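Treating backbone geometry as a discrete language has practical consequences that deserve illustration. Part of our work consisted of pairing the sequence of a single chain with a tokenised description of its backbone. We regard such an encoding as a compact summary of how the chain folds. The amino acid sequence and the backbone structure tokens for this protein are reproduced below.
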Amino acid sequence: MRFLIDFLQNNSLYGVSKSWAQRKMSAPPVVLAAVSSNGRPADGNVGVLVENSLKEMSENAVSSASSAVVENDLTSTVRGGVEDVYGEDTATEDQYITPWTVTVASGYPLLRDPHYNKGLAFTEKERDAHFLRGLLPPVVISQDLQVKKMMASMRQYQVPLQRYMAMMDLQERNERLFYKLLIDNVEELLPVVYTPTVGEACQKYGSIFRQPQGLFISLKEKGRILEVLKNWPEKKIQVIVVTDGERILGLGDLGCQGMGIPVGKLSLYSALGGIRPSACLPITIDVGTNNEQLLNDEFYIGLRRTRATGQEYAELLHEFMSAVKQNYGEKVLIQFEDFANHNAFDLLAKYGSTHLVFNDDIQGTASVVVAGLMASLNLVGGTLADHTFLFLGAGEAGTGIAELIALEISKQTGAPVEETRKKIWLVDSRGLIVESRMESLQHFKRPWAHEHEPVNNLLDAVKAIKPTILIGSSGAGRTFTKEVIETMASLNEKPVILALSNPTSQSECTAEEAYTWSEGRAIFASGSPFSPIEYNGKFYPSGQANNAYIFPGFGLGLIISGAIRVHDDMLLEASEALAAQVSQENLDNGLIYPPFSNIRKISAQIAARVAAKAYELGLATRLPQPENLVAYAESCMYSPHYRSYR
């Protein structure tokens, strides 16, 4: 093997690109992993492509090489579908991929590579073939037993942040076991890897930071962002989640430490939506922070300066968006996450017509809430057009949800969206948004300024508007007071109350408060999880209006269709698909969302509906359209099961 690598280096074939080699060869190439002096693959996961003149020698070398070979990790693809026994997504990449074999380092470096390490699950044959004898205890165990062992260990931690750190350690040590653990125990571990625990992780990110899990692009890299993107080892990126850390959950400006959000979101893209981990890229754009506590923290890992604004900010973001498109192409999904209102709306408007962009705070939240509202109609009766909506909070989430509700009512009734907006009222920090405040309102609030006398607080707004549905997106905890909920209950037999703000400390009310103050009549869901509560001898489960129901499947739908733009109709399709997954049993228990235990099936249904709408709108580029989009989506989903090495 060493002779072969030396030969390749001396003949200038070392590190040649796949695309160049495929153009040069008439027969399928052979791929060998070039192992550097430290024992790791010299060029990421894929090594050296060998010209036909070396093919016979290469095949002989591979058969006796000391490197572990991943069987069927990359299989031949045929236009219109992929046969992949592991369910891993080569179908979502460009077609006409030439078959190859991938090799990875053996011995001790193999145990330190999270992409290929299997720990005690390496078989006896694999241990002999890949120089692992003595590097592992003699026992061989299954991946399922590893999962059982890890969950037993995880449950011993009493502090949620300790569980979060244990999960991150596992991800850095054994990627497939991490995802297997998360998929098999999603309801228990979702609050650990994402809200609410990820909020605390971001607050303390500087102290718990161990090694980078994504790209940090700061003002120091201005003019060099394309070069920075090329430093990332994976080249086939399909989803980017990016934040500038200015509005992390309901916790405010956490600057560079907001990286925990893109990392967490992309973990869910892979676990819940089946996007390959290697196709996901978390990015934090560091333009400084206005958080004085962080600026004075000796462990803070970001730029120690106040936030860039105006032209300086806009130029950096524009360079970033241009570089992403240049490096990864037209079809890479860029998800904006936790940007402040004044930037979030502008970025979505500016790049929505030129890039495949999605804002989860505006669009994902809206889609999951509309799905819950559709399901709740089975309990409260009527159509969306029959109800009156009152929001506490008029930022990204509030106005995004309100607009999607108005669009859905318009779709159902045929009425202009300008007319359907009149059923929806918003309260911000200055009171009810009314027409007399028009001149002082931010542009995204103006469509919601209706004719009404001024109202200064939420309680008076509830009494004046008499809503049937109350939605909290304020980021302010305990603002649905006892008087507010009692008033809602006096106006409605079954008041719908959604307290959406994250993390748990910022929720407008708790599940216990909603059920107790409404005498058990509320239809309740929250953004963060609450335990079931007992009231008057009856147990009330707490539904969760979690964006994780929507964005993983939504992203998968965009990818499998090769969509080049996001359209509002796709969001409505996702809402309808999710609402359709709520069973009668769920409704009988007062739940307006299905259990997370079935989330991958739900994501496949959402992906199929989103992809179908992309084809209908002429925004899809992967042709022809598969006959069965649900089956196709499921076949494209990443599987965390171990590969067999030979």
